[in-house]
């Protein structure tokens, strides 16, 4: 009897233990719509986060040389002993190992971009047939590992070998933008594009925010002689990201084994319901190159890159040589404008999606955002050269200009996805390649202008040229840009 009395509780007890598991499984299965899935459980948000980190790593690897070169170069030797009254009092302003002219520094800074642009268009075509994940992950891994060779190349091989190593890093980073765009086109529904695109591409600013001040600290206090530690630390961090990205992220929702079916169905139906099979089967190059909307993006992209590369590569030098700020503080100050751009990019992204949901046209929204993003920095560049006596005003103007520049991620930068989700990777590969060819001339032009006369008058000319490029290209976009799907 005792045995018989003990039998009934066993199933009940087992049922009690199984209940939480069944409830958890049921909760996972029973989402009927995508909106019911918590944001933290939507796989596309995880993909967005990983792409954000990838973009941050890419820009860390791109911008750390801008700060490192300030510590690498012996400025007293190249400017003359009386060029800077503060030079004798500040060892880190002139204690670098290399006597490289401003002109040569411009070529070293530009060498990365030569490699970067070469791979843009080939990968734009390749990802259409082979996917974006592996090109992005393995390309960034090459970029990360080659970073460890930068100190050796500079010390043993001189500027030629340093340029070659930076060129190789650029080759590895080349797939980042077309592959990112292709993955956004596959993963992000149209009503979320502005904020997702802003979040991912704002990783560029986040990476710069991390790179600038930390590079300054490493240059002043790091191991292996200071500035070499910049490349060792960031190279290791970027390598770690590559491993996790290749392991955890898939090319699209259809290939993912981690995504819920309701989220997969929502993404696929939102993006591809209006895309015909015929359009997906061929690449309409003739139509693309005859479209004024495409050329409008090209102009805006090129103008932005010229102005942005002017600031990104030359701002640390301007702060060091005109405002006489030491290397450690230089990195911190140089990062402030990018912090503003990162935060404002997110704000503009949410604002743009809000306007689109409120039935403001996609075309009007893109042009409005683009106006903030290009006209704003142009005006600030025109002003900043006349407040060189005040470090505070200089940084305020730079910060406002770069903050407004964050609107471009909800303007032309995401506009490729509006024109064609199917060919977004190829479209941005073409515009990004051209824009970077234009952009890589910025540090060379600036370097040549200040080479013989590193005075404030020369810097004003550098800023004036960048401002004019911004203004002209923004106007072209506002006249010819479009947010309507074309291919």
How would you describe this structure in keywords?
single chain; 487 residues; mainly alpha; Growth Hormone, Chain: A; disordered N terminus; membrane; ion transport; MFS_Na/Anion_cotransporter; MFS_dom; sodium
What's the topology here?
Blueprint: H1 2-6, H2 9-29, H3 43-72, H4 75-79, H5 91-94, H6 102-118, H7 120-130, H8 133-146, H9 150-173, H10 176-187, H11 193-201, H12 203-221, H13 228-248, H14 261-272, H15 277-281, H16 285-289, H17 292-321, H18 327-357, H19 362-384, H20 391-405, H21 412-419, H22 424-439, H23 441-451, H24 456-480
Helix pairs in contact: 3-10, 3-11, 3-12, 3-13, 3-17, 6-9, 6-22, 6-23, 7-10, 7-22, 8-9, 8-10, 8-13, 10-22, 11-18, 12-13, 12-18, 17-18, 17-19, 17-21, 17-22, 17-23, 17-24, 18-19, 18-20, 19-20, 19-24, 21-22, 23-24
N-to-C SSE series? HHHHHHHHHHHHHHHHHHHHHHHH
| CATH hierarchy: architecture | Up-down Bundle
Helix tally equals 24
Rg over alpha carbons: 25 Å
How many individual domains?
1
Query: Overall 3D geometry?
Result: globular
Could you say which structural class the secondary elements and strand pairing correspond to?
Answer: mainly alpha
Largest β sheet strand count, sense and barrel closure:
none
Q: Low-confidence runs (pLDDT<50, min 5 residues)? A: 1-6, 81-93
Count the beta strands: 0
CATH topology: Growth Hormone, Chain: A
Please state roughly what percent of the residues sit in beta strands, choosing from under 5%, 5-15%, 15-25%, 25-35%, 35-45% or over 45%.
under 5%
Distance between the termini: 78 Å
Q: Give the CATH H-level superfamily.
A: MFS general substrate transporter like domains
CATH class: Mainly Alpha
> What is the average of the pLDDT values?
78
Helix content: over 70%
């Amino acid at each position: 009897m005792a045995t018989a009395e003990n039998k009934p509780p066993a199933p009940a007890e087992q049922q009690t233990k199984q209940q939480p598991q069944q409830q958890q499984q049921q909760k996972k299965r029973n989402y009927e719509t995508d909106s019911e899935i918590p944001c933290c459980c939507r796989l596309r948000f995880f993909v967005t986060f990983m792409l954000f980190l990838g973009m941050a790593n890419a820009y860390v690897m791109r911008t750390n040389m801008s700060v490192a070169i300030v510590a690498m170069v012996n400025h007293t030797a190249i400017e003359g002993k009386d060029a800077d009254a503060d030079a004798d009092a500040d060892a880190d302003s002139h204690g670098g190992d290399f006597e490289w002219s401003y002109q040569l520094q411009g070529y070293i800074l530009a060498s990365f971009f030569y490699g970067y642009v070469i791979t843009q268009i080939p990968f734009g075509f390749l990802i259409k047939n082979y996917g974006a994940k592996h090109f992005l992950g393995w390309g960034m891994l090459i970029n990360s590992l080659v970073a460890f060779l930068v100190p050796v190349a500079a010390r043993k091989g001189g500027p030629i070998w340093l340029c070659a190593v930076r060129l190789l890093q650029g080759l590895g980073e080349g797939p980042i933008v077309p592959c990112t765009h292709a993955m956004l086109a596959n993963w992000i529904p149209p009503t979320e594009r502005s904020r997702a695109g802003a979040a991912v591409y704002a990783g560029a600013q986040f990476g710069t925010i991390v790179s600038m001040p930390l590079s300054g600290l490493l240059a002043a206090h790091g191991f292996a002689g200071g500035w070499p530690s910049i490349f060792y630390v960031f190279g290791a961090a970027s390598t770690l990201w590559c491993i996790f990205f290749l392991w955890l992220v898939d090319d699209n929702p259809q290939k993912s084994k981690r995504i819920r079916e309701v989220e997969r169905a929502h993404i696929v139906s939102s993006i591809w319901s209006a895309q015909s099979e015929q359009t997906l089967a061929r690449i309409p190059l003739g139509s693309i190159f005859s479209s004024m909307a495409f050329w409008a993006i090209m102009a805006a992209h090129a103008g932005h890159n010229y102005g942005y590369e002017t600031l990104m590569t030359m701002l640390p030098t301007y702060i060091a040589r005109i405002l006489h700020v030491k290397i450690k503080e230089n990195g911190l100050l140089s990062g402030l404008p990018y912090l503003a751009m990162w935060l404002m990019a997110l704000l503009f992204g949410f604002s743009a999606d809000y306007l689109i949901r409120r039935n403001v046209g996609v075309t009007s929204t893109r042009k409005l955002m683009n106006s903030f993003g290009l006209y704003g920095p142009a005006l600030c560049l025109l002003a900043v050269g006349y407040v060189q006596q005040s470090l505070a005003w200089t940084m305020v103007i730079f910060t406002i200009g770069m903050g407004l520049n964050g609107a471009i991620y909800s303007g032309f930068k995401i506009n490729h996805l509006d024109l064609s989700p199917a060919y977004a990777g190829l479209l941005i590969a073409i515009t990004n390649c051209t824009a970077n060819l234009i952009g890589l001339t910025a540090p060379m032009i600036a370097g040549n202008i200040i080479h013989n006369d590193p005075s404030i008058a020369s810097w004003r000319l550098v800023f004036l040229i960048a401002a004019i490029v911004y203004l002209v290209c923004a106007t072209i976009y506002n006249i010819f840009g479009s947010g309507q799907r074309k291919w």
